[in-house]
Design goal:
This protein is of the alpha+beta class and 492 residues long. The protein is built from 17 helices and twelve strands. It has one domain: Cytochrome P450 (Cytochrome p450), CATH 1.10.630.10. Helix content is 54%, strand content 10%. It starts with a helix and ends in a 6-residue tail after the last strand. About 1% of the residues have low confidence.
Length: 492
């Protein structure tokens, strides 16, 4: 009798456990879907995961410890290749888009979608940055701030400075012995962007800013846990320090402008201080600082990581390396003897190197996903995206899709020979009104660096099989520990 009672108790506990488990798994669905009424029946397939954490932990686990493509693959395997899936990400019910046409629609249709980054990201980057502005305000700020970093005239102004930085830095690395190649490249690209935006080369300011940006970036894709020891907590502290440094720079610039004649050459801070709306309103310090935080971060992170990966991938593929180097040698051979440095015309002649950069951007996916929010109920691929739900545009899934790119994990710049990607199939810098305004400058920096590196240097990695981390960006765990060797004494 006692044995039977124990068995009944065990079965009851087990049944209760599974019932509780089932309730937990359905809790998010009941909370967020039932209020939609009939619209819930036209939601895309998927699941909203566990209460509070939803699917975020699965995402972080895949990107931190597993295969980053496994997260989306799990949805495809369960629900088919619909390209549209529901999930609960970063504290919000969300729709994930993984095929070109849905991604293009979310990026291009400003009437239906606005930026929808997690609240934690807004706290780090700033609500007054491009992440938080919409419609006419966004268009006006973008027009004013993109001018210094786009177009023939603007880019021509920076070539000499960028080239001098690259040459002096490469020579310095040769004498340093063992370096973290990624860390040093990020410092190089940070020096360039700080000069362009703030017209300063103060080592003290750059070191302070660079240190805090490193902490900030680790927190951008971390769980928003504001407790000591967690990446997000450290990132919030870094944000405060960045604001203090930039506020000091803004104060100094205002004082200098008040006491000195207007500068003939203006940088980004001057452009922001000069912004005046139709009603005479000027930008506040908060608005200026949030925009600078965003630009300075984006302006060195993406170009730094892609420069490192392009260098590594070239050296890992000798035939591709030789072809890219031969193109640079031909540019030098055709150069007039009186010419001392690169010109924009020469950079635009780097056809194969441009394909190397495009392929690196596709393969590495410096931004795996961007966030939008539905302004109204939107139909995408026959499914309803409810008003107010977050929309995650998965660049990585598009760029690694074998139905778009054969052998997508292969580094193959020649795949771009005569190939024009269809809309939505190649989006490393986004698309539409929120296309990254600094993409031309980033490619310019990368091209100049690779030009000199291919001609005169080689990379010797100390841990070529170093494991990778994928958050906040794909990188070797050892930050590409290496030595830089000079292979030519040719004068550039």
């Amino acid at each position: 009798m006692e044995l039977g009672s124990l068995w009944v108790a065990f079965v009851s506990v087990l049944a209760g456990f599974f019932a509780f488990y089932g309730l937990l798994r359905r809790a998010n669905g009941w909370l967020y879907e039932r209020k939609l009424g009939e619209k819930r029946f036209s939601l895309p397939p998927g699941d909203l995961g566990w209460p509070l954490i939803g699917n975020t932990w699965s995402f972080l686990r895949a990107f931190k410890y597993d295969d980053p493509d496994s997260f989306i693959s799990s949805f495809v395997n369960r629900y088919g290749r619909t390209g549209v899936y529901k999930a609960f990400m970063f504290g919000s019910p969300s729709i994930m888009l993984t095929l070109p046409e849905p991604c293009r629609q979310a990026l291009m249709d400003d009437e239906a979608f606005i930026p929808g980054w997690p609240k934690s990201t807004y706290k780090l980057i700033g609500r007054k940055s491009f992440l938080g502005t919409v419609d006419d305000e966004h268009k006006r700020l973008r027009r004013l701030t993109a001018a210094p970093v786009n177009g023939h005239e603007a880019l021509s102004v920076y070539i000499e400075f960028i080239e001098d930085c690259v040459k002096s830095t490469l020579d310095k690395w040769v004498g340093m012995g063992q370096i973290e190649f990624l860390t040093e490249i990020r410092r190089l690209t940070f020096r360039i962007i700080v000069h362009i935006f703030l017209s300063t080369e103060s080592e003290q300011m750059m070191e302070g800013l660079e240190k805090e940006y490193t902490a900030l970036n680790y927190g951008v894709r971390a769980m928003a846990i504001n407790l000591p020891g967690f990446a997000y907590h450290k990132a919030l502290k870094a944000r405060k320090k960045l604001v203090a440094i930039l506020q000091s720079a803004v104060n100094a610039r205002r004082q200098r402008r008040a006491n000195c004649p207007p500068p003939t050459k203006k940088d980004m801070m001057d452009a922001l201080l000069d912004v005046k709306y139709e009603n005479g309103k000027m930008l506040t310090d908060e608005e200026i600082i949030d925009i600078l935080v965003m630009y300075l971060n984006a302006g060195h992170e993406s170009s730094g990581h892609i420069t490192m990966w392009a260098t590594v991938l070239l050296q890992n593929h000798p035939e591709i390396h030789q072809k890219a180097k031969a193109e640079q040698e031909e540019i030098i051979r055709k150069r007039p003897p009186t010419q001392k440095g690169l010109t924009l015309k020469e950079i635009r002649q780097m056809d194969y190197l441009s394909k190397v950069i495009d392929e690196t951007l596709r393969l590495i996916n410096i931004s795996s996903v961007v966030f939008r929010e539905a302004r109204k109920d939107v139909n995408v691929n026959g499914y309803t995206i409810p008003k107010g739900w977050k929309v995650l545009v998965w660049f990585r899934s598009v760029h690694m899709d074998s139905e778009i790119y054969s052998d997508p994990k292969e580094f193959n710049p020649s795949r771009w020979d005569g190939f024009t990607p269809k809309a939505g199939t190649y989006i490393p810098f986004g698309a539409g009104s929120r296309l990254c305004p600094g993409n031309d400058l980033a490619k310019l920096e990368i091209s100049i660096f690779l030009h000199h590196f291919l001609l005169n240097y080689r990379l010797e990695r100390l841990n070529p099989d170093s494991p990778l981390r994928y958050l906040p960006h794909t990188r070797p765990i050892d930050n590409c520990l290496a030595r830089i060797r000079k292979i030519s004494s040719a004068t550039m």
